[in-house]
Amino acid sequence: MEDVQNDILKIKGIRTKVLEDSKKYAVHIRGMDKLCTVDEVREALEELVPGIGPHLKLSELRPFRNDRQAITVNTDKTHIDKITIHNELRIGFNTCYIEREHFIVKCRKCWASGHVERECRGQDRRDRCYKCGEKGHNAKQCSGVEKCPLCLEEGHRAGSGRCRDFRRNLSMARREENMRRRASTIASIPETPKIKVGQNIVIRPPVLTNVSNQSSQQS
């Protein structure tokens, strides 16, 4: 894969690839109504982050639950960080939700997510079919049903979006991202002035003006 940095960030036991290519940084925006257009999403983002327009690459709108739509936005890391400071984006009358895309690494040895091959202590599955998990053939030759050897369920392959192992690691990465956002929000709040020990604080009562006396004097 081009422009993939070799550095790996460890996040609560989850490993995510640090990607240098600007096209590899993405956010998902969900919750637009079915009449929303790509241009409306672009305008909302330009209002949220002024000057971001030329740096955006937007996907086509796709169906989302409850008759809503979703879209993927690609840009460079600097602008992704500016977008993900916000949790929500107002588009028309809808409050849409912003989520940064997480790239969870997968082990080529055991097929589990969250670690790389050199750190793997799991079962070696490199000689097995990636579709059904059995030995003796590869996925192109496989006529069997898809079966995940990680969660032992049929209907999906190892490490796919339906895999419990992958969903668990993705959930942990999302929690870590939320913690980062909260920490960033707290850091942006001005500190309360500290009172030194022994410092005298004088609280002066407000000056009350007798309105009735003033009005009588004016008359």
Automatic annotation (TrEMBL):
Gene3D superfamilies: Zinc finger, CCHC-type (4.10.60.10). GO terms for molecular function: zinc ion binding. SMART domains: ZnF_C2HC. Transmembrane segments: none annotated. Keywords: Metal-binding, Zinc, Zinc-finger. The keyword Zinc applies. Residues 128-142 form the CCHC-type domain. This is CCHC-type domain-containing protein. It comes from Hypothenemus hampei.
